[in-house]
Structures are given as C-alpha cells and as structure tokens.
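## retry 2 of 3
previous attempt timed out at serialization; input unchanged, resubmitting
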Amino acid sequence: MNKYKVLILVMFFIITFSLAETHAIINDYSLLGKTIYLDAGHGGLDSGAISNKIVEKDMNLVLVKTLEEKLIAKGATVYVTREDDSDLSTSSYNRKRSDLYNRAKLINDSKCDMYISIHLNSTTSKTWRGLQIFYNNVLKENGEIAKVINQTLKDNLSNIRDIKLENDYYMYKYIKVPGILIEVGFISNPDDNYLLRQEDYRDKLTNYIAVGIENYFNQNIS
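## retry succeeded, writing output
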C-alpha cells in the first residue's frame, strides 16, 4: 500500500509541475494576436551606407531576422518586407521611389498592428553616434510607440538619443498603420560600428526593441 501511495504522490508532483510549465509558456506569449511588419532598409542594388566592414543593407537584414525570431517567440505574427539581398522595386525608372512605394504598400495591405523599419546612420564626422528613433504624426500612435520603445532602450542600453519627429521621409508618410523608423547607430562612428559587429550586442539590442514593443502593447490593454 505504501508503494502505491508513493507512486500516486510522484504522479501528483509530475502533473503539477507539467501544468505549471504549460501555464508559464502560455503567459510568455505576450504578443499573441499582434501582427508586426519588419522592414530591413535598402537591399539589392541599393547598399545603403558602407563603413568599416559594415554594409548597411546586410546589417539591416541581420537585425531584422534576429528581431523577427524574438517577436515570434513572444507570440507575434511577423512579416518582413524582404528576406534576402533584394529590393522591392518594380520599375527601372526611379527605382528607389518604386522600392519605397512597394514597401509602404505591403505594410498598409497587411493591416498590421505595428511596423518597425530598421536602418543605420552614417555621416562624414566620426564623432556622431547613438541609436535614434524617428516618427511622424501621420498617426497619433507613432509618437507614443517611439516614446515607449525609446525609454525601454534607455533603461537598458547606453548611448540612446532622444526621439525625433520627422514628417518628410517619403516612405513613412504614406504608411497608414502605426510604426517607427529606428536608426540603430552610426556606422561612421568607430564605437557604434564595433558594437554592431558583435553578436551579443545585436542580441541585446533586438531583445530590448522586442521588450519595448511588448511594453507599448501592454500599456494599451483596456
């Protein structure tokens, strides 16, 4: 009889532990039901900025793929404007504008909950550095997304610049769903350039962008 009591007790603990594990996994899907579109800037013939071993189009794609994994792990449905070294242009005339128009159309047609566009900054001066978030006032939510994600990054990483209102960028003024542009650093700056080439830093950076997205949606739960 004692043998059966021990067996029942063991089974009880196994079931209890399994339920606790399942509950924890469900709770971790904080972005379940949210659709997010990620845009890796440039691609194909358009390399973007180039400085000290970093080609912008390639680094943008690396960061987007890493961020995509983290958002999917939180339960989000994620789409990307490009998955490889290509652009979205459908015209040889004014190829760049065609590319930007088609990115905006993809994002609009998806009716996603948020878009995040990833780019890198570069100047002739090596002193400028830091991540900066740009937003426009096409939608009121854009400014709030910028504030929440920026604050999350400032709380966890160094050298995060203040957010900036910018209404003149061609692509973003045509996007009708909420979102922001993140310039993740100045590759013309030796420190930013070095950090972006480190896998552990890219992992931290994309992790806190994902947490910032999570924080934004959590504060808007009614």
